[in-house]
């Protein structure tokens, strides 16, 4: 059997590309210098892949920012506002990625969206009526030649025509169908040119096929590919899918003239049954995604080899489930984690080793006798060190239906809280963090490096909190926060204190452009060993008469921004985390904290791509997990939650079902569309739709905030509305924050007065 991967990480094992690109942004290096780093990264990748024995080596999976943006530019999908600015091609590319402000003009970036069910984000191509689609670039050709010159024969990887059209925004009258023919011609000519310079295989990625598809989608797909395939000549086309199965189109796909089809056997629940029941043509290659491209655990060879045996009547190529872009580079740079942990992990480079092992083992009849197999088997046979905690397992197994239900019901609590908290109409608050100024970061770093004592660190934070409380009182906010100065990241902060998590040093994964994240690993059963936030909250509350929000991260977000376990379900892991956070909630309450916010910024992250699976696969346990966190509090304790980074309009009933008392969310950039949806769904939870965008240093005026609130009041009852910014303020500067919050409070006061006079109701 042969082996293949779909794509490889590209920011560099030590994030070299990120740092060089940022230098380029700051004009410290030239385009040519940046290009040198890019070439080095590509060279290293190809040589690593070649040395590993991989048969199908990708090229054109490199990107300076994003592959979909590369594809758009390749086909001249460049909105007019970026053309004729006098920018170089690379400057134009980066202007589309991140906006441009300078001597040559002022343009905003393209919109950015989540790439399917990952934490990677792509730039949304914009197709205008005037867009002239044609093959305008040569990146795939150049990279193919570059690899060839190094003695590496590659398979160029290009995002497919269907996915490109489905993910693009059409800004004018003309829609996907109107651009189909010119785009078909452009893809065909690219494939032809790749063939001319020696490419034998071209991989076209069509992850969009794993969604629920309707007849129109299927017809479009067939139209596009019947034409592209009829002109492919000698070039072999691999249709690559990932992030799920292609149940809606499988029977048609296998009848089309593809030379290979890539299926995901990890996330594609129905992949195996589709192949078994409907067969697979003997003249085509079946690229079987059996090594998980999204998680960091070792592959279970026993399971994989029996899966491959089930496919033995077909021409199988062993592959990854998706691009390795979604896992870190290599374990080689992890010097702090002991071997008892790391031998259970495989990052991108180690997965290449797994593919090589599987390739050898798959061809041996009695692979059970091989050392590599036995060693792998033992990893799964043994109990992983420090991972199991029977008390936690028992507690989860004893969760009862009533543990998911908070009593009394919402309306009754609402009345109790109204009199106990005695807040004004349109209460004002913030989302939690205050500006993380240089001194705050320096303090945390010094403490982590052991340069300052625990007590010095705490003293510094207490001083910061004292200033923060004084500032909020001076501004006149109604519900205060402590500012989150002790926290680096909303997940890492809790992960570090919970038992069951592991942290890496260099295991970065690209989130978008030059931004990378370093997700913690859920290693074992999760529990809380001691109170995590109570001391800070109690201290803060002691400084003020006003209510102060305790601030926690919710279980779904903690799980979604970590690498989850594979030996138990994510549902079970989430329940474990939920119980730990529940204990913290109850501790805060018994220590006099009357309002507790549980952030679920990433609630939507693992929502299945198929709508038909939303409830049965995800929301049916994710929403209860949140309720488990707060169902034990007294009626007078007010529970807030906060959400951002994604659209929620389509899951509004599920959000209401979280049964929080208040929800604040990001709204200022989505034209308040979400409010219509709240109204339609008769949303009961009180709401604080953000009245200004905290991602920008711009200070909103009082009038502007009032206008936003008046709009909100058209859709939300006045008893239900809170006034707050979009999200935490940690990335903002101090001066703009004070000005913005002053305006926010002033706007709330004026709106209250208007409302009391009977205007604006
Ligand atoms: N409470 C967090 C903060 O204010 C919420 C962050 C988030 O939603 N991403 O920083
Ligand atoms: Zn937020």
Structural class: alpha/beta
**Average pLDDT for all residues:** 96
Largest sheet: 8 strands, parallel
Binned strand content: 5-15%
Number of E-state strands: 23
Gap between N and C termini? 70 Å
Work out the helix count: 27
Q: Rg to the nearest angstrom?
A: 27 Å
General description of the model:
This protein has 761 residues and is of the alpha/beta class. It folds into two domains: 2-329 and 336-381, TIM Barrel (Alpha-Beta Barrel); 395-756, TIM Barrel (Alpha-Beta Barrel), CATH 3.20.20. The protein is 42% helix and 13% strand. An eight-stranded parallel sheet has the order 1-14-13-12-11-10-8-2. It has a five-stranded parallel sheet with strand order 19-20-21-22-23. α7 (176-196) runs parallel beside α8 and α26 crosses α27. The model has no long low-confidence stretch (mean pLDDT 96). The structure holds glutamine and zinc ion. The site of glutamine has 13 residues, from loops.
